[in-house]
Amino acid sequence: MAAANEVTLQELHDHEAEILARVEGGERLTITAHGKPIGELVPPIKGASRDVVLARIAWAKENPVDDRFGEDIKALRDEHLDETELRFRRWGWA
């Protein structure tokens, strides 16, 4: 028997309307086949209208990533590594 947030592929086939109504009601469901997850049914993101998406795309085009972006990400990552791991990386052991 599947967990409450899991639906087997057969259950989806047999009870499609009921399962989609659950998703429409806000429930997030994992679809399984032979006990393994194969996908998810999720409700749409609220507030992500076409206008919002287009505005975000326009902003991204106007504000490209600068040349130092990769270095900034590495610096942030390194702040969270302990000293031993940093040494291993510097010496090529990690």
The biggest beta sheet, please? 3 strands, mixed
Helix-strand makeup class: alpha+beta
Low-confidence stretches: none
Question: Which value, in Å, is the CA radius of gyration?
Answer: 22 Å
The residue-averaged pLDDT reads 81
Secondary structure blueprint with pairings:
Blueprint lengths: L5 E3 H6 L1 H9 L4 E5 L2 E6 L8 H13 L6 H11 L3 H8 L4
Parallel strand pairs: 1-2
Antiparallel strand pairs: 2-3
Structural overview:
The protein has 94 residues and is an alpha+beta fold. The chain folds into two domains: 6-41; 50-89, no CATH class. The protein is built from five helices and three strands. It has helices at 9-14, 16-24, 50-62, 69-79, 83-90; strands at 6-8, 29-33, 36-41. The protein has a three-stranded mixed sheet with strand order 1-2-3.
Provide the descriptors you would attach to this structure in a database record.
94 residues, 2 domains, 5 helices, 3-stranded mixed sheet, alpha+beta
Summary, kept brief:
With 94 residues, the chain is of the alpha+beta class.
